[in-house]
Amino acid sequence: MLRLNVTRVGFLMGVSLLLASIIYFFAANWGGLVRADKILASAGIMVLFYGAAFIFSKMKIMLGHHYFLSATFLVGGCIAFGVAVALLNQIYNSHADTYELFLIWSIPALLLSFITRFNPFYILAYILVHLTLWQYFFPSSYHIVHSDHEILLIGCLFALINLILFVLIEAKRLTSAPLKFISFIVFHISLLVLTSSTLYDLYGAWMNIACVAAIAFGFYYFAQVRLDKIMLTLNALAASAFAVFKYLELMSEHASTAFFMLGLVFVALLLTANVFFFRYLNKLGKNDLNSDEQPEQAANTQAEAHKSALFGKIASTIVTVIGVLIGSISLVGLVLLAAGEIPPENILFVVSLLFIIPTLLLNRLNTAVRYTVLTIGYIAGLISIAWIDITALSILFLAVSIVGWFKWQGRVPHLFIYSLININIAILLFQLFGSVQHAASFIVFILTSLNAVIYASHHLLREGALKNQVRECGWFFTLLLLFWLTFMQDIFPYSYELFNILNFIVVTIAAFLFVRRNQVFEAAVSFVFWFIFLAFKYYDLFWTLLHKSITLALLGIIAIAVTYIYAYRTRAGVSEQADSFSRLLRRSPVLIAIVVALQLGYVGYHAAVSEALLSSGTSIKLAIEPLDPRSILQGDYVRLQYNISTPPDHIAQELETRRSNSRIKVVLQQGTDGIYNFDRIYRNGETVTNKEIVINGSTSGWRNINYGIETYFVPEGTGIETEQNARFAYVMVGTRGDALLEKLTKE
User: Fold this and answer.
1) Which domain holds residue 175?
2) Tell me, what DSSP letter sits at residue 184?
3) What are 360-376's pLDDT values in tens digits?
């Protein structure tokens, strides 16, 4: 199993690097390829991924490895299709990250998810559908204004979609555990946002009823109708989030000494409820025990009891964190209001010690209450030492924090106090070396080295929970700070480049090493930071996107080749893993082939229609005002504001009465200088003159009109130059009013 996991890590990393290299390459918008070459390249890459999936599915040796590769390349093919669609929009200057991109991309993802029943396709389709809706209502490349009523309907739409999806999974109509959790969480987030009375004056208060009803029903359903401790824990999280949200909302309107006193009382009540809830979950696990059960049934019951205790601790931790947040805010607010002439930071420091020291000595307090009071004290203390800025007090508080580490027990409490210790050390270092040049970079470097030493020294400790927690905390913060270091200024020549290379090498080797050693936590953390590094360095200026693309492609090929050789040499005992992935292409190969053909057909159709418009449309000249942002999939672009985007006042007043994203047709008239200007809204059946042209647009919900030509993609690094020099746009308009942006010019 360990060998199998190592090979899958290698294959997954290799394919991920190849996909990243493809995205980086096309986002670079390299001028060495003409439109036809880019289209053929994107289609060819998509065929290559799907072809690799088919070939690996037919291999008869190393079944577990080949079927896993087949499934990975199948998902990669669907992602490559999305890249191809994004490239088409880049070539023909459609809106950046437009909803049409994600809509078209989501169709094959949905079809493949229903055909294969494969969780990665379910998750990909879920993400794409939500991105489609989000970009439709809140596009990133231009601005749309929505009324409170529209916002309410949009929020309800997101909530309804996720509720329906959750009900389908709960009713066994769909089978996807990740989607079950995601849809439940997003459903409650949607409801919670809609309860904001400050954002939605008319509807926020009424949405509180819907949110409370959903939470109450969740407790009833998951405790009485269908016992599910995981969902019960998530429901407790939703209830806690609602409580904090309402507390912060009320605090913004009614902040006073009495209010903050009530906040501390509320924390006490919350902790009491937490204790009872924790006991209740434990009882749910114990009630399932039965001494007359068969050994296999007894083992399953014991496993369920263990899960009950685990989820109870999770719920207790979540509610404790909520109590800490409210308690800390209440305590700081109370001190600030009641300080009078005494410096509030001094009072806060004394109060923090009064919270911490007695609680450390009282070991018999309820665990949740004890940790909450301690955490509030530590947070208040960190705020006070940063505020007071006296090194001796920072050292004193660091000593108190270290004592807390040895007094606390449990994985989460230790991770939390370890975080506070790191923050304390950072504050102390800033107080000592804050005046040094590039002090922030030096401090992050020192903290990275310190955590690396702590991780390496965990072997000196005795076996036990404390050793494991030192190991986990040390490794997590080593990678976190090392990643942070890749964004800091040089502390010595070429340190920036060195830290980036070091980060990639360390995390890559660590992922393989920990998987091989079966150290789950370190392997998971290494994987997370590996993907985060790959994603964030897209925006980094370490190299150009083109150079990154070539580098990542080579690394991906090497990773797959080396892993394949390793898999071939250690292929014994992996055939039993074949079944879970072999069904993907064997279940419905014809349907999958049809989906692939439809994707290729769309690429060809989109290119043909766009080329036809460019060759037969009417070219018009428009005045522009450019800006210079960036798209994740499509690279640098210039965002354009046209002279025709803002109509005259009498037309603008009419547009305000229309809902956002309403389709309209606009008549443009050519001026004496050859530039087309806004003339009027087109009415069905009216005729236009030779110097007039009709163009399609959509309302923004305010006074602007969007025409779908507000984005012009440029090669990487040339956006600022284009923004400074471009003053006019040449646009091709077809007979039906569709428009394509052809080029930008200075005159």
Assistant:
1) 146-226
2) H
3) 887 776 666 777 778 88
